[in-house]
Amino acid sequence: MEFSEIDILQIEEKGLSTQEVERQIQIFERGNIKVDIQQAATVGNGIFAYSIEEQKRFIQTFEDHKDQLSLLKFVPASGAATRMFKAFHNFANEFDPEQQSLREYLDRKGNKSLQLFFEKMEKLPFYIDALKKAKKNNPDFSDKSNNEKQLILVKTMLYDNGLGLSDLPKGLVPFHSYPDYTASAFEEHLYSAAKYLSTNGMTRLHFTVAQGDKDKFEKEFENIKERVKAATHTEFEISYSYQDPKTDTIAVDKDNKPFRDEDNRIFFRPGGHGALIENLNKQEADLIFIKNIDNVVVATNLPKVVEMKKMLGGKLITLQNQVFEYMQNLDGGNNSEAKLDEIASFIENELFVKVTSTFRKFTGEEKTQYLCKKLDRPLRVCGMVKNQGEPGGGPFLVKNEQGEISLQIIEGAQIDKSNSEQLKILNNSTHFNPVDIACSPKNHKGESFDLHSYVDDHMSFIADKTKDGKPLKALERPGLWNGGMAYWNTVFVEVPVETFNPVKTVSDLLKPSHQTK
């Protein structure tokens, strides 16, 4: 690949090398690699489901150990609210109250989410503010037809001369309405984190945000700080980071040549949430909880969420204590055959990693090296909910290129649906990934793993996009909890579906789980 001096300068300014850009172009030439799912992970076959008593024991384990650990909540929060309001932007641009009725428009669109919005918009946490603003900006508002009023209200919610909600980071959109205030997703994360992460009067959170949004989050925290501190009796240590420009990926045209913008500069795009492994790698903590910014609950539903967080944390601590003990045994050497077999059984039964069929033929030293390689990895415990038809990834047993089978979180787009056997396995899946993860990035010596070493680069994904009206191919880095954690030791635990309440569209805020009354 020939790059001009200007190209090379642009590449280096992003912290990249021409070799890395050429490697990315080779991925485009290679195309997407479909994963080889062997089975859907189900309860008893890759997913643990625990009784109330077992859950209580894990919760107690978490409570017993948490004050001796450095705890952190890691929240990917760089998403804009634009997607939440996509259907409403279309409505604002398309609906002409003089040419058609609202009912005609909704019937033509057949969008159930949009229909729900207009049926129950009075229950939205920002409805009253939007109505006040609409009346202020439109003195004749009360004289308008109902169709005109609906259009004005939507535009008031969306745009700068109103509430400007669609230009906000998603985490700062009002989600829940309480008697004395409305709470954003950002605020709800503070409340929930304080309930299980607070140690010695301090709760630590880290938010990954878009460039330019840090000030907005900091301003929001200043506005709500006293209220949240009074309610939680804790101080907050909040840090922020951006997606590193060096994790951006090159875009190409249909011939896999670098896509160039109107100024003939190479066009780079953010590499997707998988790029956040860089941000996660920089965090200093013994135990990190990961949850998406839009997955929050109202205060009355918080106890169950907190309980399950503690349960996942207790499960992680239990596993980690055993892993660390075994690693110390292996480091010490001179282990009996019985001890090596015990460790191998733990790996198979607790971590669901299949030990090679030739293990029994290994010498003691070979067994020790093999078991060290399997155990000495970052560890994560992932909550899984029963499938409710939500779009997104799920838990599967996957065979990699080396023929090893392990537990992975796989997105539907990674599966070859033209293969009848693969499609059958997908259709038989029972659980869904809510992104509810407790993880540890440290080894038995207290040293942090280099998380980049545990990424499966083959799980990069090519997607069709557009720029300035022209088609291009974009490269998404292996997803943070997909290929980004492919070589972690992974455990799946069933959690109640009530703990999963994402807000993908505005109408999701109208679901009972997001209503406070």
Kindly describe this structure.
By secondary structure, the chain is α/β, with parallel strands linked by helices. The protein has two domains: 308 residues, Spore Coat Polysaccharide Biosynthesis Protein SpsA, Chain A (Alpha-Beta Complex); 86 residues, no CATH class. The N and C termini lie far apart (61 Å). The mean pLDDT is 93.
What is the share of helical residues?
25-40%
Mean of all residue-level pLDDT scores: 93
Q: State the CATH superfamily name of the largest domain.
A: Spore Coat Polysaccharide Biosynthesis Protein SpsA, Chain A
CATH class of the largest domain: Alpha Beta
Radius of gyration: 25 Å
- Number of helical segments? 15
CATH fold description of the largest domain: Spore Coat Polysaccharide Biosynthesis Protein SpsA, Chain A
**Number of beta-strand segments:** 19
- Work out the strand percent: 15-25%
Number of domains: 2
First-residue to last-residue Cα separation: 61 Å
CATH architecture field of the largest domain? Alpha-Beta Complex
Quickly describe the structure.
This protein has 517 residues and is of the alpha/beta class. Helices cover 36% and strands 18% of the residues. Strand 7 (202-208), helix 10 and strand 8 (235-241) form a beta-alpha-beta unit.
